[in-house]
TrEMBL record:
<comment type="similarity">
    <text>Belongs to the short-chain dehydrogenases/reductases (SDR) family.</text>
</comment>
<dbReference type="InterPro" id="IPR036291">
    <property type="entry name" value="NAD(P)-bd_dom_sf"/>
</dbReference>
<protein>
    <submittedName>
        <fullName>SDR family oxidoreductase</fullName>
    </submittedName>
</protein>
<feature type="region of interest" description="Disordered">
    <location>
        <begin position="133"/>
        <end position="169"/>
    </location>
</feature>
<dbReference type="GO" id="GO:0016491">
    <property type="term" value="F:oxidoreductase activity"/>
</dbReference>
<keyword id="KW-0560">Oxidoreductase</keyword>
<dbReference type="InterPro" id="IPR002347">
    <property type="entry name" value="SDR_fam"/>
</dbReference>
<dbReference type="InterPro" id="IPR051687">
    <property type="entry name" value="Peroxisomal_Beta-Oxidation"/>
</dbReference>
<feature type="compositionally biased region" description="Acidic residues">
    <location>
        <begin position="148"/>
        <end position="165"/>
    </location>
</feature>
<dbReference type="Pfam" id="PF00106">
    <property type="entry name" value="adh_short"/>
</dbReference>
<dbReference type="Pfam" id="PF13561">
    <property type="entry name" value="adh_short_C2"/>
</dbReference>
<feature type="domain" description="Ketoreductase">
    <location>
        <begin position="5"/>
        <end position="229"/>
    </location>
</feature>
<dbReference type="InterPro" id="IPR020904">
    <property type="entry name" value="Sc_DH/Rdtase_CS"/>
</dbReference>
<dbReference type="InterPro" id="IPR057326">
    <property type="entry name" value="KR_dom"/>
</dbReference>
């Protein structure tokens, strides 16, 4: 179902991304492994991190190349897409696990730590999404106009598109969010970025549906380097209990033709569970024919409008 597809795995050097890269390759995908090779806090860089995963895949008989770099850099993100198309003739799937942590209580969080986390975790999702979306939209439009003979040829010499115009298969972008999007103590920056991804996905999925492109968000749950930043006695699980490899099959599924028309969704994978999150929805509503005033809200909001709604929600997010 993904055999012969071209898949970019951003943040593919460690943990969940590494597991996804191996999973895709094991099913015959040609994988481009991206990673900056930085520490969990975003410092440093090491090109060998991406190359190591690509080498592991090749040693197991798969097809993989490394493309180290910073996906929050718009110029680099454009180059990542362009280089992949030049090398393979197409891009079928992009999944993006790139992310860093710089935790701190809100009133102690530095401006630098706020900006670095937002830049890496949110801008780092949008930059490659924009680059891929631009390529896919332009290619789809050209295919429709030319009857299916405009995109660069595949590595096997075929053009990778059908003869009737448009893509031969839907393209797919998977943005990785986190459970912290609901709120997480000491992670205002990380939570804001991960929540922003969900709004971004819902917006862009609507923009690209006519170009035959799926856009989804994934909330994964698995043991990674980030888990190890939590003191061992407070970690929610061990690596053996929640291995990152158990997230990877859903990633491969979303890259495959079996996931056709699944778009605009926030999905979950962790351990033996997969699922679909609901979108934000209004829980209660009150109508006042003449409009609301401070006085009428004070009288009716708790007792009438929100009588069945929990309004003190802090505990549920800690």
């Amino acid at each position: 179902m993904v055999d012969g597809t071209v898949c970019i795995v951003a943040g593919g050097g460690n943990g969940l991304g590494r597991a996804a890269a191996h999973e895709l390759a094991s099913h015959g995908a040609r994988v481009v492994v991206n990673d900056l090779g930085c520490e969990v806090d975003g410092t440093g860089s090491d090109a060998s991190v991406a190359e190591e995963v690509a080498t592991e895949i090749r040693d197991r008989g798969g097809a993989a190349t490394a493309h180290p770099g910073d996906v929050s850099d718009f110029e680099y993100a454009e180059r990542l897409i362009a280089d992949t198309v030049e090398a393979h003739g197409r891009v079928d799937f992009v999944c993006n696990f790139a992310g860093i942590l710089r935790d701190g209580i809100s009133y102690k969080l530095t401006e630098e730590d706020w900006r670095e986390v937002i830049d890496t975790n949110l801008t780092g999702q949008f930059a490659p999404l924009r680059a891929a979306a631009k390529h896919w939209r332009e290619t789809s439009e050209t295919q429709n106009a030319d009857g299916g003979d405009s995109e660069d040829g595949d590595a096997d010499g075929s053009n990778g598109e059908d003869g009737d115009g448009g893509f031969d298969r839907q393209r797919s972008y998977l943005a990785v969010s986190a459970g912290a999007a609901r709120g997480s103590l000491g992670q205002a920056n990380y939570a804001a970025a991960k929540a922003g991804i969900l709004g971004m996905v819902r917006s862009v999925s609507n923009e690209l549906v006519r170009s035959n492109v799926r856009v989804n968000a994934l909330v994964p749950n698995g043991y990674t380097r980030m888990t190890e930043t939590v003191p061992e006695k407070h970690r929610p699980y061990t690596e053996s209990e929640m291995p990152p490899e158990k997230v990877a099959p859903l990633v491969a599924y979303l890259a495959s033709e079996a996931a056709e028309d699944i778009t605009g969704c926030t999905l979950y994978a962790g351990g033996d569970r997969v699922g679909v999150f609901s979108d934000p929805a209004m829980e209660a509503v009150g109508v006042s024919p003449d409009g609301w005033t401070l006085e009428s809200l004070s009288e009716h909001f708790r007792e009438d409008v929100a009588s069945d709604v929990e309004l003190s929600r802090t505990e549920s997010y800690l």
